[in-house]
Each structure stands twice: as structure tokens, then as C-alpha cells.
Design a protein that fits this description.
The chain is mainly beta and 132 residues long. It has one helix at residues 32-38; strands at 5-9, 15-20, 26-29, 42-48, 52-57, 60-66, 69-74, 80-85, 90-94, 106-110, 126-127. It has 1 helix and 11 strands. The protein is globular and about 35 Å long. 28% of the residues are buried.
Length: 132
């Protein structure tokens, strides 16, 4: 996937991005913060910041949900878009915002101990009760 260009956006299109490089397979995060932000669990890939470019950010807002990371969302339509750890050279991108076929699969699940009692965690990939 190294030569593929990925692009995506929020629901209303006010926030958009491109990735000129590979994407990591998807990790499903079941932590309480991700569940509250998305209404379920977060399914996100990530990319190197050097390969990532915002192409529309008029409604992009960042929310500091913890002392070590921030979450990006669209202030117009409410779409959850990004998660970024402070000082990281990568950015997590919600998989559902990517246009077209990605070729990605779920790599694993993290913070399984926090998952909602209304669903079962699918069998595919690894499982971590917390994150290492």
C-alpha cells in the first residue's frame, strides 16, 4: 500500500484529509473515552504525520480528553475524525471516514476490560485488557 493515496472526510465535508503513504490495519479501542466519543467503540487506523495532510479544516476542532492526547472532530456535523498522542509522529484516523476501499482489516482490540456490556468483542485479531 506504500504508493496508494487515501483520502477521507467528515459527514458534511468541512474537514478532509489525504494520506500519501501506508495505513496501519485497524485497531478497535473499547476504552470509556472512545465509547463516549463515538457511541460504540473506536475503529481507527493510523498514518505517519509526514504522509498526512489536512485538505479542509474549517470546522476541525480539537478536544483534549487526557493530559497526553487530543481528539479531532468536526464542529459542524460532529464526526469523530482523529486521535493524536502528544509528541507522536503518527495520527490515528477513524476508519469509517476513509473514502472507498481501503484493503485494511481489524488487527486487534484494546481496552477490552472497558467494553460495553451490550456487545461482544469479535474474535478477529489480538485482545488486550488494557494497552501495553
Amino acid at each position: 500500500m506504500n504508493d496508494k493515496v487515501f483520502w477521507g472526510s467528515c459527514l458534511c465535508g468541512a474537514c478532509s484529509y489525504e494520506v500519501h503513504g501506508p495505513l496501519r490495519d485497524v485497531i478497535a479501542c473499547h476504552c470509556t473515552q472512545c465509547r463516549k466519543q463515538t457511541g460504540h467503540f473506536m475503529a481507527a487506523t493510523n498514518a505517519k504525520l509526514a504522509d498526512f495532510r489536512l485538505t479542509g479544516e474549517s470546522a476541525l476542532r480539537w478536544y483534549r480528553a487526557s493530559p497526553t492526547a487530543r481528539r479531532g472532530f468536526c464542529a459542524s456535523c460532529g464526526s469523530t475524525l482523529f486521535w493524536q498522542a502528544d509528541g507522536a509522529d503518527t495520527i490515528s484516523i477513524t476508519a469509517g471516514t476513509i473514502e472507498g476501499k481501503t484493503g485494511l482489516k481489524i488487527e486487534g482490540h484494546i481496552y477490552c476490560a472497558d467494553h460495553g456490556d451490550y456487545y461482544s468483542i469479535p474474535e478477529e485479531g489480538y485482545r488486550y485488557e488494557q494497552w501495553h
